[in-house]
Amino acid sequence: MAASAGAVVTTLVGVVAGAAVGERSQDQHWTRDQVARACVRLLEESSQVFMGLVEMERARPASVPQGVVVPTALDWRPWNQALNMINLVADPGIVDAALALDEQIWRMHTAIRRGFGWTRPGWTSNSLCSKPKVPSSMLLDGSLRAMAPRWIG
To answer: pLDDT by residue (tens digit) across 43-61?
Structure first.
């Protein structure tokens, strides 16, 4: 009787432990998937914001003097939603990178609204097209790469 009770207890402990390990694995997969989706969405929204900034700069009336702030036509809601999702699901390194990207985008937006465009110190134009090239020291080497965790590729 004691042997069969021990076998039952051992079986139950094995089932509970297996369930806990399986649940933990599923949680890790879900978290990894959510972080990957949030990073992809943030990068997609950053592209939309950059395109909006280019259009905003091109549409600035020549009659408005440099330094005078013009209204913005950008819809910041999708960007802010993507940034908030990063804050909810990502680890601190990715969150810091996303916030650094957000800060640089906001600085660009402010410069364009004031008529300074892409000519701010440290910003250069890409010689192949009219779209701006962000200094790698600000975004490409730091924020964007940090937002791509090793398991994404």
So the answer is: 999 999 999 998 998 888 8
